[in-house]
Amino acid sequence: MRRTPPIVLTIAGFDPGSGAGVTADIKTIAAHRCYGVACITAITVQSSQGVRRVRTLEPSLIRQTLTELADDLEIAAVKIGMLGEAEIVRAVAAFLKQRNLRKIVLDPVLRSSSGARLLDQAGQKRLIEDLLPLATVVTPNLDEAAVLTGLRVTNRKDMPGAAARLHALGAKAVVITGGHLSTATDFLSVRQQGRIEQETFSSRRLRSSCTHGTGCAFSTALACHLARGRSLRKAVRLAKSYLSGAVRSAYAVGKGVGPVNHLYRANWDVR
Ligand code: PLP
Q1: Quick one: what percent of the chain has pLDDT higher than 70?
Q2: Is 15's C-beta closer than 6 angstroms to any atom of ligand 1?
Q3: pLDDT level of residue 21 (50, 70, 90 thresholds)
């Protein structure tokens, strides 16, 4: 029998257009030659034109799914995306603690780019208190960093302060993503034995109408690289490079903001 690749678990919402959420994550995981398993937290009604409706699933269903998966297979890394509400945050945090899972990427999904709320206010508080300290790394974009810290976070200069505040809230490592800044900038900050080490990853900004789900793709790629045993620094560099390729090779899907091309490395011909 062949060797089993690292198994990566995504805990996230369902986007029927597969630009974001679990189905997009499974594509990203496959693109990294890992095996993807998923726990759906919420069903959304959305298309490339925006999120219309959100329905979270029963927390007991999520608890049971996570237990069923963890009893059956060895999870190398976990990516956490949209959680919807406080009880689901609580269920996920309890699961991670109970199973002592170690490589955890927390994408603190709060709102869609179209403005729909993807985590309620109580859930936001639970995420900070229960999940932030458990995560190996948390990957907010500028808006999410601003909401979580209560600080103004709009450019490269604001990133170190926001990261320091996230460390103070319990985060071990932070990547603040700023893909839409004039120079695309991701900012990594790691707290180790009381010291904070920071590094900026910059690249040319890509102008594209296909940016739906970029946060999901970045955080999932990061989880895959951690699952493969790469250091956080290297994982950030590789995830950023994957995302650039996926944006650069995107094709139009739908009338609005299209998805990135998660599987661009598969190099399928479109005829
Ligand atoms: N829908 C789901 C299920 C998501 O997880 C996310 C983001 O993580 C979105 C929608 C929003 O994606 P975007 O803001 O890139 O459009």
Answers
A1: 99
A2: yes
A3: very high
- Span 165-184, mean pLDDT? 94
Separation of alpha carbons 71 and 69, rounded Å: 5
H/E segment holding residue 62? helix 59-72
Tell me the one-letter amino acid at 256: G
Residue with tokens 């690292």: 6
Q: Is the CB of 259 under 6 A from ligand 1?
A: no
The 8-class DSSP code of residue 136 comes to S
Structure tokens at 207: 């102008």
Residue 205 tokens read as 């900004």
Distances (CA, A) of 213 to 13, 39, 97, 176: 12, 18, 28, 16
Please tell me the distance from the alpha carbon of residue 35 to that of residue 33, in angstroms, as a whole number. 7
pLDDT in tens, 36-45: 999 999 999 9
- Rounded CA-CA distance 79/104 in Å is 6
Check if 54 has its Cβ closer than 6 Å to any atom of ligand 1.
no
**Residue 85, Cβ density class (10 Å: 0-12 exposed, 13-18 middle, ≥19 buried):** buried
